[in-house]
């Protein structure tokens, strides 16, 4: 089977053109093996591009453990892959796990993905909990480099509140002009170099913390920088949310299933 490898700020994915339904989506063991960094290709997740009536394509996303969820960086990479396959030119309207999404890709390969509106955020003394297509628990820390992401992330992800469905855990250092972030990602069950929905959630928490009604914020992850644009009304509802950044094809090859 032909496959492609893409990355968006270090968040990497195995991409398969499944418009002819050649891939068995029910075989979780194969998905896990392909994402395994020692016994397979290696990736944070696997993405299938399929045909769907009325839209440019259907994106089906699997985490490395075979579970399904929405993935922001994966969606941006899927848009880049769709352009490579000739499905789209510069604009895409596609279906993902959490519904329809609009996206744009420029000549430099930068992809802007429109996220769904966010109406309710949970705020505590030192944390936020925000769902941006995937759930994100956000902890305010003094220095992201000093945090044991895996140890603390697993404690939160598997605590009494989140054990059943899980949550992503983000460690954020707020600055006046942006923020730094590290993420423990459920489904991968490890730290990833970047997480698109986590970056978006952290950006919205920054807007709430500094009482911003609109703008564009730069978020620095371990894999690179992303931008999040947003608007916020008087009731605290976020709309016109865009996740913006690179999506790059790393290599392509063949794998025996």
Strands, helices and their partners?
Blueprint: E1 2-8, E2 11-17, H1 28-35, E3 45-50, E4 57-63, H2 72-84, E5 91-96, E6 99-105, E7 110-114, E8 122-123, E9 127-131, E10 135-140, H3 149-157, E11 168-175, E12 178-185, E13 190-192, H4 196-209, E14 214-221, E15 224-232, E16 238-246, E17 248-254
Question: Overview of this structure, please?
Answer:
- With 257 residues, the chain is an alpha+beta fold.
- The chain has two domains: 2-115 and 247-254, Roll (Diaminopimelate Epimerase, Chain A, domain 1), CATH 3.10.310.10; 122-240, Diaminopimelate Epimerase, Chain A, domain 1 (Roll), CATH 3.10.310.
- It is built from four helices and 17 strands.
- The protein has helices at residues 28-35, 72-84, 149-157, 196-209, and strands at 2-8, 11-17, 45-50, 57-63, 91-96, 99-105, 110-114, 122-123, 127-131, 135-140, 168-175, 178-185, 190-192, 214-221, 224-232, 238-246, 248-254.
- The chain has a 17-stranded mixed sheet that branches.
């Amino acid at each position: 089977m032909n496959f492609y490898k893409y990355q968006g700020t270090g968040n990497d994915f195995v991409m398969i053109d499944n418009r002819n339904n050649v891939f068995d989506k029910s075989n979780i063991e194969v998905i896990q093996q392909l994402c395994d960094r020692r016994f397979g290709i290696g990736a944070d997740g696997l993405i299938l591009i399929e045909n769907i009536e009325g839209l440019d394509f259907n994106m089906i996303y699997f985490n490395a453990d075979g579970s399904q969820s929405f993935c922001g960086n994966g969606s941006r990479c899927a848009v880049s892959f769709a352009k490579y396959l000739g499905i789209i030119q510069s604009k895409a309207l596609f279906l993902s796990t959490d519904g329809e999404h609009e996206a744009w890709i420029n000549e430099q390969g930068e992809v802007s993905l429109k996220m769904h509106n966010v109406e309710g955020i949970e705020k505590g003394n030192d944390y936020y909990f925000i769902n941006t297509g995937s759930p994100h628990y956000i902890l305010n820390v003094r220095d992201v480099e000093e945090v044991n992401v895996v140890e603390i992330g697993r404690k939160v992800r598997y605590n009494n509140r989140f054990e059943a469905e899980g949550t992503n855990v983000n460690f954020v250092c707020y600055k006046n002009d942006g923020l730094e972030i590290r993420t423990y990602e459920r489904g991968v069950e490890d730290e990833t170099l970047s997480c698109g929905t986590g970056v978006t959630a952290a950006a919205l928490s920054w807007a709430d913390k500094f009482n911003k009604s609109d703008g564009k914020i730069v978020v620095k992850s371990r894999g690179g920088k992303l931008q999040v644009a947003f608007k916020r009304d008087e009731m605290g509802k976020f709309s016109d949310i865009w996740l913006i950044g690179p999506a790059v094809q790393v290599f392509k090859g063949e794998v025996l299933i």
